[in-house]
DNA sequence: TCAGATACTGTACACAAGTACAGTATTCTT
DNA sequence: AAGAATACTGTACTTGTGTACAGTATCTGA
């Protein structure tokens, strides 16, 4: 990518910021108004230069077609629950408490319709470096392997546990990763809601 | 928020998905085309109903003014570095390796221009539940307090350490949180680049 | 030194897109 | 049973917006 001039970097920064804030990229005249240009063409020249240098792409003829950079981080929204209900209807964001929005690069994988987020309560998984208040990303329906951290419904509340199966035909157990909770629960009697595949921690 | 009909939920889902994918919300005619409507007013009726029910807001008169929901998660982009250079120029995303995009609700605070992300290398902070490969969010310029995890430049590489200062006038130290690295380093001789305030873990 | 890129002003045009008004059939609620 | 909301069709108007063409001044690299 060719180097941008100071002015071009300013314009690019405004475009990205405006799209993040407004939900749509600015029009050429909005760019012109922001920088005091008296002609929409001043903004257009900058956009064309940015496009030529690979900093963004445009969709010709479309209103607000600028701003979609080729390396633009693509974000996904993952519904977040306090406690996942037993059924886990596919209705998705219906009764979710909110959404986790994150870009695919950082997340590391592409979530599906059965991916959800869960706020962790309790410190039963400190041994796996998952703390109280963390938000874990889970995949529903994936078959858990030995050592995976899973979300299970215990006493009408989602709790994280380690999935333990010593051999291919051995019985599966759930184990808390905290000496204070030495319980070992048979996995077959519980509803495993998802396998933990990611984590977000805030306010450390 | 009033309950949405199945059709309205479909339209809302399309609007959100299209904006995530394209970077701009769809026009009324694009919605109509997606659902096979022969009139842009069919889409407009749905958008008005969704607006009336509080599912989204519109900016009248603006092209692609729909899709900005009131509870729409506002995202921020935080430049991500492999190793933070000593100077840490304010130029921001210039030499960043990428961006972490995340919504403010999940992040838990509003980042400033001196907020950056760092990929963790090594397991020197497992005692604080920060693992190799984690991405930590740091704030540059904030004064570290006792117990904070900080990013410090040691041997031309950013490393995480715990900031230790026993009393108000005591000397500050940096401590690794791993028995294998028992080194205690004087903080004054090192460049503290930022205080860790968040974390993202992937591919657990 | 000279061509090209940068950084604009100014006017005008064509199309994309929001909007208005009129109308129909079905479903839901009271 | 009545009224409102839902879920559209169809046409037309107006504005927002991308685009084209013409022109000026400054700066930068070959």
Structure description:
2 copies of one chain form a homodimer. Chain A has 4 helices and 11 strands. Chain A is an alpha+beta fold. Chain A folds into 2 domains: 6-68, Winged helix-like DNA-binding domain superfamily/Winged helix DNA-binding domain (Arc Repressor Mutant, subunit A, Orthogonal Bundle); 75-200, Ribbon (Umud Fragment, subunit A). In chain A, a hairpin with an 8-residue loop joins strand 9 and strand 10. In chain A, helix 1 (6-22) packs across helix 3 (40-52). Chain A starts with 5 loop residues before the first helix and ends with a strand. In chain A, 36% of the residues are buried. At the A-B interface, helix 1, strand 3, strand 4, helix 4 and strand 11 of A face helix 1, strand 3, strand 4, helix 4 and strand 11 of B. The structure holds a DNA duplex (30 and 30 nucleotides).
Question: What would the keywords be for this entry?
Answer:
nine-stranded mixed β-sheet; DNA-binding; Umud Fragment, subunit A; homodimer; 4 helices; alpha+beta; elongated; 204 residues; Arc Repressor Mutant, subunit A; 2 domains; two-stranded antiparallel sheet; 11 strands
């Amino acid at each position: 990518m060719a180097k941008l001039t100071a002015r071009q970097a300013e314009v690019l920064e405004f475009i990205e910021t405006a799209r993040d804030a407004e939900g749509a990229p600015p029009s050429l005249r909005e760019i012109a108004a922001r920088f005091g240009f008296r002609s929409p063409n001043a903004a257009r020249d900058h956009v064309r230069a940015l496009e030529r240098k690979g900093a963004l792409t445009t969709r010709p003829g479309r209103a607000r077609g600028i701003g979609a950079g080729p390396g633009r981080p693509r974000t996904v929204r993952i519904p977040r629950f306090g406690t996942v209900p037993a059924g886990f209807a596919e209705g998705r964001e219906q009764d979710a408490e909110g959404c986790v929005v994150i870009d695919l690069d950082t997340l590391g994988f592409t979530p599906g319709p059965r991916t959800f987020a869960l706020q962790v309560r309790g410190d039963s998984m400190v041994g796996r470096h998952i703390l109280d208040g963390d938000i874990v990303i889970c995949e529903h329906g994936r078959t858990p392997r030995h050592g995976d951290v899973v979300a299970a419904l215990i006493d009408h509340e989602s709790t994280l546990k380690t999935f333990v199966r010593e051999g291919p035909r051995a019985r599966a157990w759930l184990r808390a990763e905290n000496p204070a909770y030495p319980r070992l629960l048979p996995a077959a009697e519980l509803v495993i809601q998802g396998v933990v595949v990611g984590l977000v921690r805030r306010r450390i």
